[in-house]
Automatic annotation (TrEMBL), chain A:
Domain NADH:quinone oxidoreductase/Mrp antiporter transmembrane stretches: 123-406
GO MF, one example: oxidoreductase activity
Transmembrane helix in keyword set: yes
GO cellular component: plasma membrane
Protein's name according to its UniProt entry: Hydrogenase-4 component B
Transmembrane segments: 6-23, 32-50, 76-94, 106-124, 158-178, 202-226, 238-262, 268-288, 337-358, 370-392, 412-437, 463-481, 514-533, 653-674
Entry membrane topology: Multi-pass membrane protein
UniProtKB/TrEMBL annotation, chain B:
Record field: transmembrane: 6-26, 33-52, 72-95, 107-125, 161-182, 202-229, 241-261, 273-294, 303-327, 371-397, 409-437, 457-474
Gene Ontology MF annotations: oxidoreductase activity
Principal localisation: membrane
GO (cellular component) term, any one: plasma membrane
Name by which UniProt lists this protein: Multicomponent Na+:H+ antiporter subunit D
Membrane topology: Multi-pass membrane protein
Keyword Disulfide bond: no
Ranges for domain NADH:quinone oxidoreductase/Mrp antiporter transmembrane: 124-415
Swiss-Prot/TrEMBL keywords: Cell membrane, Membrane, Oxidoreductase, Transmembrane, Transmembrane helix
Organism superkingdom: Bacteria
Subcellular location: Cell membrane; Membrane
């Protein structure tokens, strides 16, 4: 039975290779095969979740330190969510990619990444996590670069740079941790860290590991790849990047926080700081954005911030962190499911009109009730509307902040939390109104959009989007039946054994927070978005990009630092290093070993030469009427010196020595022969 | 096993190589078969010797101190085993490559003879014997560097002679010192100098060690004496790939390990200023080589700079001066050999097929040469240290050893390793990405004539790629073996 671990991880990778080979023969067969792989992977994952509960598998000696997998509620559920998202996006991909080039490559990397992602979620030692995490990072690079446009390649470059730098720092952290506590097994981390006397070293190691995982999760200030990569990646890939790959990063942060720093106040405070910045920053960026997928990407960043706040609250609350634990897990899950729907809807828009700018796509959704409803489910879910799933998890995290205390800092955090929730509602309303309510400013375009209302997507895509969207209200309407149970199943991973709370999700206390948020959202939408962000141009309100172009962390700091400042310093050092030996040689030649110039004065010549030269000089002047510029005497002298020099060179040369040895040997041989004949 | 077979293994390729220009081959294929058979026979013989280790063999005895011995020990096993696997594959590859070049026969003569000389270094039983073969290696490889007789090649060969001979001269100081004070110069793990010979000044001993270390590491292209290596890329690719990524440069690293672990002994050196000096030189070279590689746009030169950096990984591991460090160094020696030879063969295949040498000219080749670029990608990932490829294992071992040594210097070394991994990612991946993602509007018509080479070039590449991934997934027997060698158990 334990071999199921190996199967769920490596089966998709194998399928990827087979699919690639099939795809070289027939594209249609490849599509069916890929569908088959992801659906069967989903079933296998379900089976694994049920059958393998509490099991572990060691694959000793594989990849150096050996792989270690384990199954519990959290791992299984997240593996299942991953498989579910892959299944839905794969079904949707068929129509989305119909007109793309290089689809074979996309399918190959899509499936390999599935295996790696499942591997990340099932890993039971940080070493295993790291292995699959890196594979996942590299294979998902291809998604971003898929269409090979200039901006895609640039975004992909950013993505790869963040992934590689994050991976290196993470690896450094793992080295330090391993050196400090002697193990990377997740289950033994807590004990090892408890026993370690060097708290500071643990913090350094933890910070390095956090850096690596936070880069993937998209936390501030390492979020730079997120808003760039999502808009250019194909929509199914964006859904996965945002929905599940960021969660692999969050998983790592959870491991560090719940195992290494369980109940550690300084760690919790630091996480809270980054969480709040990410949450609020992402929301503000999303409000500013005028690009459908970019808005969703910034929204992802903001939601990761919510999750980080949840994790921070777990650390701060210590033993009494039940609400935070449930809130964190549920928000992770909800965000994955919601973003799946939203990005697929964005994909539908893009595959029909190949535009993402709000002014261009305005009015596309009119007279398309199915798309409208699906998007609405996602929008309401993420805005935290009661009766939808996002509301439940946000309420739990909110409650945990309230529970911690009412010191001024935490009142501030609570308000930022509510305001960020409000901004979420505001930007989702902005998207919804633009897509489904308003008419396009260009009537021709509007007519074209309206004409698409029956043909804009096929039954398979409808199925994928419909099922994904249906999950959201079901979870939200029956929270105690569904979400509470799922959270209880997974709480063990975060160190919670008993859940004593019973939150009245629809009681006034809970609903109040949600309503404050929504009220803020309405106010922001009506008085900021519709005025400041929608100026009138030629009598119509258009969506304007109010974000100053220079304010871009990547272009302002990271790229100059990495592309210009560090290379310049490096180049300087390299130049010096490169010319060190050569310079030394030159200096030596100029000082100690300087070449002797041929002297002008050449010393005495043989008498005959002098006489002959003098005669020739006289002859030249007298008989041939030349002036004395060319002196035969002098040139004879020069030639003599040259002869001397070359003789010297020959005498000093190796071949001359060899020749001499040879001659010597000949003489010896000759002498011996003579000697022999003489006697 | 008869210990005279050790001499046979060394002499067979040398003698067989000398015969190549003399033998009357009717057709080229006959020569190919002859050389391949010769090299494979040598390799088989070497492996037999390694598995049934013969007794030590004293070839010549000049005086009591100056003895010429051949002996197979653990370290020699690793080096000889490595090169005897790579040589037949490299020969196979060079048949195809050399079709474009002239003067094949002298080339193959020296190429084959180098095999024997390198085996001599591996089997040398004491420092004098090793020194002899070490010098011989320089001499026998000069004709290979100068082979094309272009201006670049002549200059490169000249530089190569100066650097190698100069380095060997420095090494000679250490050799004489060891001969004089060491008495019996047999290699012993842990060193044969004992504590402090004959009331010498300790700093003097360390100074001699540093001189010898730097002298021998000239062949391993350690900063500041590295610049011969990128220039030597003017040689035909089989030479660059096998000699300047594996045999010659690793002979340098091998000599350094012999000097440190088997002559002076780590007990005496660890923690001294000498160790810190060589460690910091190695660390600097690690980062420096990578930075130079990033700057370089000529493909072979870029790979050569990458070799500069990676050889210092080995020297760094050796300079940690612990058993774990040596094990890491040996592991990287083996794995880097496989990865780099694969990368060079790919670059050679690209040059052979297209005559392009500069990276900006190679946009979009990946689609047209999937096998070559696939193999290159695997080796690039391996050199970056991506999990699942063998480079990751050796880097992990090195970093673990460095952290385990527990000094600030070695910790800085870990940082150097990681920075270098990052730079490796830059200089390798930019090339791969250009090959596979030339941009949306790229005109593939331009590359109509670009295609994969024939099986003689592909086969070695495939073998190496499989080895890279295979060792990445499962390498425990090898790493165990290497750590036993490092501990002196084998």
């Amino acid at each position: 039975m334990k071999s199921l671990f190996v199967i769920v991880v490596f089966y998709p990778m194998l399928g990827a290779i087979l699919g690639y080979l099939i795809g070289r023969k027939s594209k249609e067969a490849r599509n069916y095969f890929a569908d088959f792989v992801v659906i069967s992977e989903f079933c296998l994952m379900l089976l694994a979740l049920v059958k393998l509960q509490g099991e572990e598998l060691f694959l000793d000696e594989i990849c150096g330190m050996g792989l270690h997998f384990a199954m519990n509620g959290f791992r299984g559920l997240y593996g299942l969510i991953a498989a579910f998202m892959w299944m839905m996006t794969m079904i949707f991909s068929r129509e989305y990619f119909a007109h793309y080039r290089n689809r074979n490559r996309y399918y190959l990397f899509q499936l390999v990444t599935l295996g790696a992602t499942v591997g990340v979620f099932l890993s039971a030692s940080l070493y295993t996590t790291f292995l699959f995490f890196e594979i996942m990072s590299f294979t998902s690079y291809v998604w971003v670069a898929q269409d090979e446009r200039k901006e895609s390649l640039r975004a992909a470059e950013t993505y790869l740079a963040v992934a590689v730098i994050g991976g290196m720092v993470l690896l450094m952290g793992l080295f330090l941790l391993y050196n400090e506590i002697g193990t990377l097994e997740i289950a033994e981390l807590a004990q090892g860290c408890e026993a370690s006397p060097h708290r500071t070293r643990l913090y350094v190691a933890g910070a390095c590991i956090l850096f690596g995982f936070a880069a993937k999760a998209g936390a501030f200030p390492l979020h730079i790849w997120l808003p760039k990569a999502h808009p250019v990646a194909p929509a199914p890939a964006s859904a996965l990047l945002s929905g599940i790959l960021t969660k692999a990063g969050v998983l790592g942060i959870l491991i560090v926080s719940c195992y290494m720093f369980y109940g550690d106040k300084p760690w919790g405070s630091m996480l809270l700081l980054f969480g709040v910045l990410t949450m609020f920053g992402g929301a503000v960026l999303a409000v500013f954005s005028v690009d459908l997928k970019r808005t969703l990407a910034c929204s992802s960043m903001s939601q990761i911030g919510f999750i980080l706040v949840g994790i921070a609250m777990q650390c701060l609350l210590g033993e009494e962190n039940a609400l935070a634990v449930h809130g964190t897990f549920l928000h992770m899950m909800n965000h994955s499911l919601i973003k799946l729907v939203l990005f697929m809807v964005a994909g539908v828009v893009f595959m029909n009109i190949h535009e993402l700018n709000l002014n261009e796509i305005r009015g596309f959704g009119r007279h398309k009730p199915f798309l409208n409803l699906a998007f609405l489910m996602g929008a309401l879910g993420i805005s935290g509307m009661p009766l939808w799933n996002g509301y439940i998890s946000k309420t739990l995290i909110h409650e945990s902040i309230v529970e911690y205390g009412s010191s001024p800092e935490f009142v501030f955090v609570e308000w930022i939390f509510l305001i960020s929730g409000g901004l979420t509602a505001a930007y989702m309303t902005k998207l919804y109104v633009a897509l489904f309510v308003e008419r396009n400013t260009d009537e021709k375009k509007q007519a074209r959009y309206d004409a698409m209302s029956s043909s804009y997507m096929n039954a398979q895509s409808r199925f994928a989007i419909g099922v994904s969207a249906l999950v959201l209200p079901v979870l939200g309407i029956f929270p105690t039946l569904t979400m509470d149970r799922l959270a209880q199943l997974s709480q063990g991973f975060m160190g919670l054994s008993e859940y004593g709370h019973h939150v009245h999700y629809f009681g006034w206390e809970s609903v109040r927070g949600g309503l404050i948020s929504l009220a803020i959202g309405v106010v922001v939408y009506l008085f900021v978005v519709r005025t400041f962000f929608m100026p009138r141009r030629n009598g119509v309100r258009v969506y304007a990009d109010r974000w100053p172009a220079w304010m871009d962390l990547e272009n302002l700091i990271y790229r100059p630092l990495i592309q210009y400042i560090l290379p310049t310093v490096g180049q300087f050092v390299c130049r010096i290093g490169d010319s060190l030996v050569d310079t030394l040689v030159v200096v030596l030649r100029k000082t100690i070993y300087n070449d002797r110039k041929i002297p002008y004065r050449t010393g005495r010549l043989p008498k005959a030469d002098v006489l002959f030269g003098t005669f020739m000089d006289w002859y030249a002047v007298r008989l041939r009427h030349r002036d004395q510029a060319v002196s035969y005497r002098r040139s004879l002298r020069r030639r003599k010196v040259e002869r001397k020099e070359s003789r010297l060179m020959i005498r000093r040369s190796l071949s001359y020595g060899m020749q001499m040895v040879g001659i010597g040997m000949l003489i010896v041989v000759g002498y011996l022969l003579l000697y022999r004949f003489a006697h | 096993m008869n210990s005279w077979l050790t001499v046979a293994a060394v002499l067979l390729p040398i003698a067989g190589g000398i015969l190549i220009p003399i033998l009357p081959f009717r057709r080229r294929i006959h020569m190919e078969w002859y050389i391949e058979a010769l090299v494979i026979a040598t390799s088989v013989l070497v492996w037999c010797l390694l598995l049934h280790r013969p007794e030590e063999l004293v070839l010549l005895r000049f005086t009591d101190q100056i003895v010429f011995t051949l002996r197979i020990d653990g370290l020699g096993t690793v080096f000889a085993g490595l090169i005897s696997v790579l040589w037949p594959l490299a020969i196979l590859y060079s048949y195809e490559y050399m079709t474009h070049e002239e003067r094949e026969r002298p080339f193959f003569m020296f190429y084959t003879a180098t095999f024997g000389v390198t085996l001599g270094i591996a089997f040398a039983g004491n420092i004098l014997t090793m020194y002899f073969f070490y010098e011989l290696l320089t001499l026998v490889t000069i004709p290979l560097v100068i082979h094309t007789f272009t201006r670049d090649a002549v200059l490169a060969a000249r530089k190569y002679i100066y650097f190698s001979m100069g380095g060997a001269a420095f090494g000679f100081i250490a050799v004489v010192f060891l001969l004089y004070y060491g008495g019996n110069t047999e290699f012993v793990l842990g060193g044969f100098l004992g504590s402090l010979p004959g009331g010498l000044n300790f700093n003097l001993v360390l100074a001699v060690f540093v001189i010898g270390f730097i002298g021998f590491s000239v062949k391993a292209a350690m900063f500041p004496f590295y610049s011969w290596l990128p220039d030597a890329g003017a040689a035909p690719t089989p030479v660059t790939a096998l000699l300047h990524a594996v045999a010659v440069v690793k002979a340098g690293a091998f000599a350094v390990i012999r000097l440190t672990y088997y002559c002076f002994g780590t007990e005496m050196l660890i923690g001294t200023w000498a160790q810190k000096l060589v460690l910091s030189l190695a660390m600097f070279t690690i980062v420096f080589g990578c930075s130079m590689a990033v700057r370089e746009t000529h493909l072979k030169r870029r790979l050569a700079f990458s070799t500069v950096s990676n050889l210092s990984y080995i020297i760094f591991g050796a300079a940690i001066m612990t058993t774990a460090g040596l094990a890491g160094a040996l592991c990287h020696m083996v794995f880097h050999a496989i990865m780099k030879i694969s990368a060079f063969f790919c670059s050679g295949a690209i040059m052979h097929q297209t005559d392009h040498h500069f990276i900006p000219d190679m946009d979009g080749f990946g689609r047209k040469m999937p096998w070559v670029y696939g193999a290159f990608t695997v080796s690039a990932l391996g050199m970056m240290g991506v999990p699942g490829c063998c480079g990751f294992i050796s880097k992990w071992l090195l970093a673990e050893a460095a952290i385990g040594a527990g000094t600030v210097w070695t910790w800085i070394g870990v940082a150097a390793l990681l920075i270098s991994a990052l730079l490796t990612a830059i200089y390798m991946m930019t090339f791969v990405v250009r090959g596979f993602f030339p941009g949306k509007d790229f005109d593939y018509e331009k590359l109509r004539d670009v295609r994969d080479p024939n099986w003689k070039m592909i086969l070695p590449l495939a073998v190496f790629s499989i080895a890279i991934v295979g060792f990445g997934l499962y390498s425990t027997p090898l790493t165990e073996f290497l750590s036993r060698v490092a501990a002196g158990l084998i």
